[in-house]
Design brief:
Layout: H1 59-68, E1 72-73, E2 76-77, H2 88-106, H3 110-121, E3 125-132, E4 135-142, H4 145-164, H5 171-183, H6 190-204
Antiparallel strand pairs: 1-2, 3-4
Length: 206
């Protein structure tokens, strides 16, 4: 008779950080911030054809995807829009180095820092335009949970690119700095300042 020994390997994100103990405190975002342990946070677009299924992707993977295409700002593409498009290996290394720097700065699990930064910087209200009687008016609306996460990831990446583009600051350092400031509710963070601006506009439009 042959005996078999089974070894249980504990899976960690990037083979470094365990996210099983990270909790989402914001009740509105619990179902929209996915935290799964995986050596490589990459779904290869398997959820792309299903509506709203991006919330089933790991939050770190969504940050990586947003780095590749940061989106519009002021109805114009950012100068960085084409720099990382399709280069998964580059973005993987950028996020890995940014999380490593966050760990050194805070002496905490960087995924926990990222989740708390998202909770702090996710706007709850914004302004939309409605037309009534031939005139356009600003109307305050509540932001859906999934859009809250989308907006804050966009603001993180755009703020990081704005600091690093055409400067000596590396993108991984700029991204780590942006997330760290949002974690500490620092108003110099672009994400935090944009959140305050959106909520202030919504308050004035009620």
């Amino acid at each position: 008779m042959f005996g078999f020994v089974v070894f249980m390997v504990e899976m960690k994100l990037f083979n470094k950080w365990d996210v099983s103990g990270v909790k989402v405190q914001d009740p509105g975002l619990k179902d929209y911030i996915c935290l799964t342990n995986a050596p490589v946070p990459r779904s290869s677009g398997r959820n792309a054809k299903f509506r709203f299924y991006k919330s089933k992707n790991n939050i770190v993977e969504r940050l990586m995807n947003k780095l590749m295409v940061t989106g519009h700002k002021g109805k114009k593409h950012k100068v960085s829009s084409g720099h990382m498009t399709g280069k998964v290996a580059n973005v993987y290394n950028i996020v890995l180095k940014a999380l490593g720097r966050l760990e050194k700065q805070t002496n905490k699990n960087p995924i926990e820092v990222l989740v708390k930064a998202i909770e702090n910087a996710a706007p709850r209200d914004e302004v939309t335009s409605i037309e009534y009687g031939g005139a356009r008016y600003a109307q305050a609306v509540e932001v859906s949970p999934q859009r809250r996460v989308d907006l804050v990831l966009r603001m993180f990446t755009q703020g990081a690119y704005q600091k690093s583009f055409d400067s000596k600051i590396k993108i991984q350092d700029a991204l780590a700095d942006e997330i760290s400031k949002a974690y500490n509710n620092d108003p110099t963070s672009q994400a935090i300042s944009k959140k305050f601006e959106l909520e202030r506009q919504a308050d004035s439009s009620r």
